[in-house]
Prior knowledge:
Chain A is an all-alpha fold. Chain A has helices at 2-23, 27-47, 51-75, 89-114, 130-137, 142-163.
Amino acid sequence: MFESVCFYLCGGLMLLGGIMTVASRSAVASAVWLIFAFLNAAGVYALLSAPFLAILQVLVYAGAIMVLFLFVIMMLHGPVMNEDLRSRSRWFWPALALPLAAIAGSAVTLLGRARGGAFPAPAPHGFGRAEQVAALLLDRYLLAFELISIVLLVAIIGALSLGLREGRRT
Amino acid sequence: MTIGLTHYLVLATAVFLTGLSGVLVRRNSLIVLMSIELMLCAGNIVFAAFSRWLGDASGHVFVLMSFAVAAAEAAIGLAILVEIHRLRRSVNLDDLKTLTE
Amino acid sequence: MFETLALNAPSWSDLRHFVPETVLVVTFLLALMADLFARGRRPAGPFALALGGCLVALAAAVSSLPAGPRSILGDLVVVDGLAGFFRVLFPLIGAITILFSWASGEIMGPRREHKGEFYALVALMAFGMCVMASAADLIMLYLSVELVSLTSYVMAGYMRTSLRSTEASLKYVIFGSVSSGVMLYGLSLLFGLTGETTFVEIRAALLAGRADNFALLVAMVFVLAGLGYKIAAVPFHFWCPDVYEGAPTPVTALFSVGPKAAGFALMIRFFYTTLLSPGGGQAAAGAAAPDGVIVGPADWPLLIAILSVVTMTYGNLVALRQTNVKRLLAYSSIAHVGYLLMGFLMLTAAGLEAILFYLLVYAIMNLGAFLFVIALNNRLGGEEISDYAGLSTRAPWVALMMMVFLLSLTGLPPTAGFIGKMYLFAEVINRHWFWLAVVGALNSVVSLFYYMKIAKAMYFTPGERAPLRLEPLHTAVLILLAAPTLALGVYWTPFKNFVDRAVAGFAGLGG
Lengths: 170, 101, 511
């Protein structure tokens, strides 16, 4: 019972946050709604017995990535644009309907497959805790871990390379 | 009915669709980038849900990687966006017309 | 403590089989550090390091061609014949790109700091592509694709004061992130359906009938969207012409061959391993059957055949009305992806051999054609077809070499492109896909028209008469690329043998 309430609360608010992110007129409002959605996503992770992911979701996503977004929005003085959606209305429905049908279909099949889909209760002791994820990450997935460090290095170099002001030349 | 895999999958599908429609409909590239983050988040929830269902934490590792990739993509995407804004004073995707036939 | 200790835990000794990749990463880091100390107009240190690193990696790859499939580093990567082939190809492409960027005005011209970054990024991209070719796990699939993509975004926006370059980069980021988001969703479904992350185990789960058919189809199509974007197959190609036109030409040259080949490598490994069960097919079902049994419900070959036809037809028809050479070559590269997909859907060893051979040939001739554009852009400052008017009198040898590349891209004898296409079409006809062969042949005829538009401008349109001298380095590399394009059209046996050995050692076909 308690789990149901939590799920519908977190899930519903997350979806609301997502919809408002997409529907807000100004980028600042979008970003704030997205933070809201991500905080609720952390709740969803907690419900899925993934405490480590829940914490990272707050720290990395809501904390770091979204702050970056907000910084950029402030730097660009929060662009509010008049988007003429009407001119694109020709494209709007087909573009929306196609993937919608495909994914909704897949969800329905998955529904059937999962046979009600109740989780094997309860989760094994320590499941989804930092220790277990670390044990996987630093053992079997070590190469992936190294690769991700290079990906982040590229991101740093890229941001510097693209962002360094030209005016600094001497 | 107890909350199970299906519920999470439906939630993830809905979030994914929201993000995708944002990408397709919005012209403000900042909001498009945020919609992409939503799509990634939906994928992550599916991973976490299946991990729980299978009792296999490999999915968590995948989510972790996807966090890092999302951060990297956001950093580079925003850097380019700032550059575009400096050159053109606009972040509207419809204004990107230098490269059309 | 937990049940996580893998059977094949990664160990240091695994790196013995990962030498070219290791060399490339170290090269990247060293070149990056050297860049901090680089002085002067051109960053000689990073250039020399990156070029040297690529060549060492190439030598290491050639000297250690893997004998049989070997699953290493926690089963995340598999080193087999296919990986062996591509780890030769990618450092080679990297080295050529580095060489001709050195004299390119677009890369070295703009007054910016840290030009050496460019060379470091090329080495890193070669590394990422090598990893793509040997990925054997969903995580590696995702990460290697992302690594190559992120590097590409940075390189596309390299000329950051140019509106075209920056715009190309933004479009690339948005299309790229969307398709990688779709792919991530597909991967998550695949993980859930099968409960596994390595390709081999996914196949085992699919063979055991653990996955729902329709959901599997959706998951696979989502993954295909991510990979299709990497190879720029229609309908995932939208970014391609804009990025190719907007990015600096040396970067475009690299994009048009590198990530495409890597995308094919990954597609081959992923789809052949997960959806094809080796053995039993060829002998039992006659000549028209693939070398194995297709797992799953859908008629995958037909699906890919449709994709192939749409891709090549679209690419060729739109290329017809281009006037910008970079954009024309972009559409022509889309068309070439269509031809390559024909080989892909045969699901046979001979089809794979044809793809690999064509990729090798395509890399040489397409790099050549782009190098021509770079070399002339340095002198003429433009890349419209009309800029090349009267080139046959201004620089006869350069025009002649471009002719060789154009003939080869069309697939006319006596060039390498002809041999490559011959192998592809032969296999298509062998497997009784006659309609596909006819469409492909018609497309090749269409492509003749737009390639010859460039030739016509060079040879028959009068223009300036003053002789044109190119950068010596560019002329040298042009010769280096034109020679094999001609030579492989006459004598190709050693290369064919090399490719055949690679396919024989490919784990996906039971090698």
